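Office hours follow-up: a student asked to see two folded examples consecutively, so here they are.
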Amino acid sequence: MKLTLEFGGGLELLCNSVKIHEVSVEPAEGDKQLTMKRLLSWVRINLIKERPEMFMKGDTVRPGVLVLVNDCDWELSGQLETVLEEKDSVVFISTLHGG
């Protein structure tokens, strides 16, 4: 399944400073649908090149990371259980800023 992933607010630094990724991710073995939980696991293994703890805590994103699926806050669509479809856009934005 082809998806567009975008990292912002400093998260792109964890992915070799690349903001937008066109990726192909398949559902977990035995699953019929691709969920955000599976996508986050895939991102941790395949895209995050350093300090994955800055992006994830356990099996979800860290507090302070806004997740948008097709411009809609994932909290409105089921968070980890959000089902993704072909050509969906997923945006991760860190809302935490140093000073």
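And the second, which I mentioned at the end of office hours:
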Amino acid sequence: MHQQHSPDKPDDGPRRPDHGAATPAEPGSARWWAERLAGNRTRRPRAGGLSTTRIVDAALEVLRAEGVEALTVRAVADRLDTTSASLYRHIASRDELMALMADHVLGDIRVTPTGRGWRADVEALMGELRRVLLAQPLPASAGRSGSGYGPNALRLIDAALGMFLEAGLRTRQAAFAATTMIQFVAGVVDIERSAFGRGARGAVRADGFDQLLTVLPAEQFTALRAAGEAYLWMPAEEVFAYGMSRFLDGIAGQLPGN
């Protein structure tokens, strides 16, 4: 019989699946990052030579200038005035490059205590995550698959976990809170960046909504007829703030003494 786990249940230790070390590590996975970072410790960079940082910076320039379809190892090599073979000494594939880029952009997140308590700290950190994700040029799929275990992503996760632990949550509660909060922000950003998302003036491409309602059956979509205008005008910033506030209200209710 399957036993469900609750965030309020006592910790019973991490569960680590055995994936088999013989298979190549998938770019962006925890094992891939571990192997890469361990290798970086023993590698001696040559003065004036290529570095992973230079390669990633050049790749981001290509992405911003020409779009994701133009992002190839050859294009990055051309921008650095070198050969693809030179880049392959640092990265093994385009997938590895994307993983490095996805984590690199998260390095722009500022983790700065507000001095106003755990709730203000979480709001500030998640606001920073939203700002960086909205500004970065990578497609959403690259950010989700490539950045989860890189050093900058782990810095974000460590900060979020620390804030919830400091607030008084138990470890499992803090893990659920941090995961849910980060996924909430990522989901909000995905919607904001989509063609039919939401911007500073509310839902985009909503012109003609009143006309649309008039051609729908009168007995259907009654809630939209009553509250559709309010749904459309709400700006993205206010929707984000509302979701954060409601989420943190729930977290506050889990704290000792509540």
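Two things to take away from it. DSSP finds twelve helices and two strands in the chain. The chain has a mean pLDDT of 86.
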